[in-house]
Design brief:
- The protein contains five helices and no strands.
- By secondary structure, it is mainly alpha-helical.
- It has one domain.
- α1 crosses α5.
- The longest helix is centred in the N-terminal third of the chain and has 24 residues.
- The N and C termini lie close together (9 Å).
- The mean pLDDT is 94.
Length: 121
């Protein structure tokens, strides 16, 4: 189970550092081709989502690596579940049913990280 947690956490961390970093650093014009929803959400909220994603990624890795406040890794994974629920809600409110596939995969991986974290960490 320990190895499984690290595989799931690493996959999620890579994705969220990339996606969150883009939301933090890029302009709405640069984000629009990949994230059409940026026009319907205020820019400070887009940046906040990016910060939450990066913090979630760090929260998955740093507590177990350092051995300090290890239960925070489970909290970070649960937070990423909530981020995906929010993303799915946004897509569905915009009628973008076909856009939620990635959200479902990321939600499932984050839920697995919660489960693995509570059973092993």
């Amino acid at each position: 189970m320990h190895v499984a947690y690290w595989i799931v956490a690493a996959l999620l961390a890579v994705f969220y550092v990339y996606a969150g970093g883009k939301k933090i650093l890029q302009s709405p014009d640069e984000l629009r081709p990949m994230m059409g929803w940026v026009d319907t959400v205020p820019l400070p909220l887009v940046r906040l989502i990016g910060v939450l994603e990066v913090l979630g990624a760090l929260g998955l890795l740093l507590p177990p690596l350092t051995g300090i406040a290890v239960p925070l890794a489970v909290a970070a994974a649960a937070g990423l579940v909530l981020v995906q629920i929010g993303g799915m809600t946004l897509h569905l409110s915009r009628g973008e049913v076909r856009e939620i596939g990635l959200n479902i995969v990321l939600l499932a991986l984050a839920a697995v990280a919660v489960w693995l974290g509570t059973s092993r960490l």
